[in-house]
Write a sequence for this structure.
């Protein structure tokens, strides 16, 4: 398990601990505003995007251009500048494999315009345009599986899902769709490469913003109950692998 907090708007403290909460925690400090850490598939690395603190202390107006790579087993950090192309900054980061990062790029805050494959050395391997229309204008990381990104578009009363290959820049055929009510928002949260991603649904007519975890059965065009053990109402949901140390990527807050 890992979490991060920003101190005085200038530096961030990263805490790493076991999901069983046994043994001492590791605390690492780095300059800048740290965003959500992302575990590598084998659970031995963390990729931590870093924003430059605004001079006036307000919210950042641009994305990140640096990533701190944490060697979890040795407790060491490597700061990398990520090369994303002229005028672009990073919006989110995940892992394509243990040596390659997927970075969503933007020119305007929270408006993703593409996705890059970046090596752990920070070097750009490829960039392809990408539209995530159902996630525009709000923070969030789209579900990924290896070098594939789960994309979604709102088309009338349907939310339609497809798989985008970040290596080739090609979008595959439709995986399926689910009904979308006018007063509903659906955010994809986790995907194993199949046709049943986990989504978070929000009732926009509820002043409290009720959020529920559901399974989108894309081939059947329906929303099914959420995974067993997940509360029906929740604040934040982040799901990760249970393989090795990457169990620390699984976090529930309610």
């Amino acid at each position: 398990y890992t979490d991060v907090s920003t101190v005085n708007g200038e530096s961030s403290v990263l805490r790493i601990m076991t999901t069983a909460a046994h043994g001492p925690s590791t605390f690492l400090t780095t300059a800048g505003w740290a965003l959500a850490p992302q575990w590598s598939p084998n659970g031995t690395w963390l990729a931590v995007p870093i924003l430059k603190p605004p001079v006036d202390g307000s919210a950042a107006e641009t994305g990140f251009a640096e990533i701190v790579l944490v060697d979890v087993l040795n407790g060491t950090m490597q700061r990398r500048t990520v090369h994303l192309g002229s005028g672009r900054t990073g919006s989110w980061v995940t892992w394509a494999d243990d040596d390659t990062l997927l970075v969503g790029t933007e020119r305007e805050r929270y408006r993703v315009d593409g996705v890059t494959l970046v090596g752990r050395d920070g070097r750009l391997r490829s960039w392809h345009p990408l539209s995530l229309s159902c996630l525009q204008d709000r923070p969030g990381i789209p579900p990924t599986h290896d070098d594939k990104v789960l994309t979604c578009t709102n088309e009338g009363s349907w939310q339609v899902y497809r798989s985008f290959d970040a290596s080739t820049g090609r979008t595959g055929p439709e995986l399926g769709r689910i009904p979308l009510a006018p007063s509903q928002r659906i955010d994809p949260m986790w995907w194993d490469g199949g046709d049943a991603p986990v989504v978070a649904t929000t009732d926009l007519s509820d002043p409290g913003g009720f959020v529920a975890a559901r399974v989108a059965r894309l081939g059947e065009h329906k929303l099914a109950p959420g995974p067993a053990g997940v509360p029906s109402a929740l604040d934040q949901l982040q799901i990760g692998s249970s393989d090795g140390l990457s169990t620390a990527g699984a976090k529930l807050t309610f």
Summary: Residues 239-254 have pLDDT under 50 and may be disordered. The two ends are 16 Å apart (CA to CA).
